[in-house]
Specification:
Immunoglobulin-like; five-stranded mixed beta sheet; 2 domains
Length: 263
Amino acid sequence: MKTFFPLLMLLSACGFDSVQAPSPQATTRQNLQAESTLTFNSDWTVRQSSALVMGEQLRIEYNAARIQNCLGNYQDNPAWVATAHYILGDAPERTVQVGGYTSSGFSSVVPLDREGELTLWFEVTNRWGCQWFDSAYGQNYHFNVTDASTVHFNADWSISRPDDLSSAKAIRVEYALERLPTCRAYYRGYAAWDILAYARFDGGPVQSTPVTRGFGAERVAVPAAFTVPAGAKDMEVWFFNSDEFGCHLYDSNWGQNYHLQLR
C-alpha cells in the first residue's frame, strides 16, 4: 500500500457566510452501505450512476411511463405491480418490486453479493390477469459487477492506494469530507451541499459521481466507483464541492488533478 502527500488547490467563490454543518465525523455512516443506481427512464434510456461493485448495493429506479400495458386502478389504488427479475453471476433468479401497488412500501434495492454479469428484466402484472414485459425485446438488460481496488483520499491530505492497480477492473474512491469543509449550506433544516468526484482515463470523457449521500438531514461520505476501461494507463481524479447558495471549491492538486498510474 502506497501513501503519498500531493499538493492541494482550493478555489473558493463563497459570497455569503454559510451555516456550518456538524463535523462529518459527528454524522457517521457506520453501516450505511455504498450504493449505485440504475435509472430506467421514460424515454427508454438507461442511466448507470457509477461502476457496479461487489459488496455494495444497487438501487433500481423504474419510470412507470415505460409501461405500455396492464396499468389501471382499483378502489383508488394501483391495481398493478412492476417487478424486476435479475440474475447475478451463478446465483438463481431473484426479484424485487419497482413500482405499483404496495400495502407497506417497497425498497427497490439489489445486493451485489458476487462478481459477474447482472441480467435484468421487468414484468408488469395486474389483478385482472394481464402480463407485460420490459426486456429489451427479449434480450434483457446486461451489466457487469466487478470487484474494485480502493484509493483513499485521506483527511491529512495523503493518498493511500494499492501498490499495483494493473489488474483493477474498477476503482473505488473513498474521500474524506474534511478535505473540502467550506461549502456547507443548509436549506429548511437540510444539508444543501454536495461533493462530486470527477474522473477520466487516458484523457477520455469525464465521468462524475457523488462522494456523499443524504442521511437524515445531513450528508455523509460514501465511496464513488469508476469502471476502468480495458488497457487504460492513467486515471485522472479531482473533486468539486458546491452548495445551494453558490459556494464552490475544488480539490485538484493545484489544478494539475491527481493521477493514478494503472500500468
